[in-house]
Design brief:
The chain is mainly α. It is 85% helix and 0% strand.
Length: 364
């Protein structure tokens, strides 16, 4: 007599899944110092893989040399962007006397507003400022030590990313064979399909972000030149760079662009720049982002927003950057494992059901 296979109740399976996610989240928080640069290295390795393959196959370079040259090209690209931003900031420093005058006028206006609103005289305000300044100077050594520690940690973080990128590129075939050997048998073709789609989607996502950044920066620079803003190139680059940060980037770009415009221009220019940044972001979010960054693995807005918040809670700013690619990887895996397909549907949305229904209707 055949034995009937027992299936655990839904609430029991859900409890185990939630416990597993909690344990995974705890391990991710504990191992942040190694997992964070490792994931960034993985993303950069996926991005540089076509370059490394080209150098290895077409130019007959050894794998170590092709991996190293690919990383050098990446560093050169990032260095070029930083040089461009630094050159624009150096132009801003030429107008330092005008900036000082504008800031002094703003401080005087703020002082008068405080005196009228809160009935605090200018002398009392200066006493508060001097006391705060003395406290800051008293703790200057601690602040300097903390700043130096943060900068050194950031430099080490970037060095670890480059090291991980090199080793992932160098040992990519070893890692692929290991994954296939772990899931040998009938599921090997599914694993290979998952690996290929992860590479494709992540590369498409990163390239899409870069193209979107360039387009947004170009549109912003053109708009600011038409308006007549003095530092149109600098403000446009700021808007383009911060635009790649999901959701929160628009607020940072809006704050920086309006502050620089207010310090170098008039109140009308500041308001115009702020409205222009909001309009550019609205066009980007509704038209450019779906067309350029959109891919076969699409995530619904709710899951994306929750993922960004959780990423910031776990890893800070780097978690915000990594949240969308990580969720996309999970969705690729969920969509190709039969028992996990409902979770893939949850990460995607109703449009997938509509697309499958339309394809079914066409075939019938």
């Amino acid at each position: 007599m055949p034995t009937k296979k027992l299936i655990a109740p839904f609430y029991e399976r859900l409890a185990l899944i939630l416990i597993g996610f909690c344990m995974l989240g705890y391990l991710v928080m504990v191992a942040k110092d190694i997992i964070d640069p490792l994931i960034f290295g993985f993303l950069f390795a996926v991005l540089l893989l076509p370059v490394s393959n080209f150098l290895e196959r077409k130019l007959r370079l050894p794998r170590s040399a092709s991996s190293f040259i690919s990383i050098l090209l990446l560093v050169a690209f990032v260095g070029g962007v930083l040089y461009l931003v630094g050159a624009q900031i150096s132009n801003l420093s030429h107008d330092w006397p005008m900036l000082q005058s504008q800031i002094k006028q703003s401080i005087d206006s703020l002082r008068e507003w405080i005196q009228g609103a809160f009935h605090i005289t200018a002398s009392k305000q200066m006493i508060y400022v001097e006391d705060t300044g003395r406290k800051i100077m008293a703790s200057g050594g601690a602040v300097l030590g903390t700043t130096f520690g943060a900068i050194s940690s950031l430099v080490l973080f970037y060095i670890f990313i480059l090291i991980f990128t090199f080793f992932i590129l160098f040992y990519r075939r070893l890692l692929l064979r290991f994954i296939l050997s772990v899931f040998n048998g009938d599921s090997s073709h599914i694993v290979l399909d998952i690996v290929e789609n992860i590479q494709k989607i992540l590369r498409q996502y990163i390239f899409g972000l870069l193209i979107e950044m360039v387009i947004v920066a170009g549109v912003a620079i053109a708009a600011f030149f038409i308006i007549g803003i003095k530092y149109a190139a600098l403000l446009g680059i700021i808007v383009g760079l911060f635009n790649i940060i999901p959701y929160l980037g628009i607020f940072t770009a809006l704050l920086l662009s309006t502050l620089i415009t207010f310090a170098t221009g008039t109140l009308t220019d500041t308001i115009t720049v702020g409205m222009s940044v909001i309009a550019i972001h609205a066009i980007d979010a509704n038209f450019l982002l779906p067309a350029v960054v959109g891919s076969k693995v699409r995530l619904n807005a709710l899951i994306t927003f929750i993922g960004i918040i959780m990423g910031e809670m776990i890893w800070g700013l780097s978690g915000m950057f990594l949240s969308i690619p990580i969720i996309a990887i999970f969705k690729i895996i969920f969509d190709r494992v039969e028992s996990l397909k409902p979770w893939g549907y949850l990460l995607g949305g109703d449009y997938e059901y509509k697309e499958s229904a339309q394809k079914k209707m066409k075939t019938e």
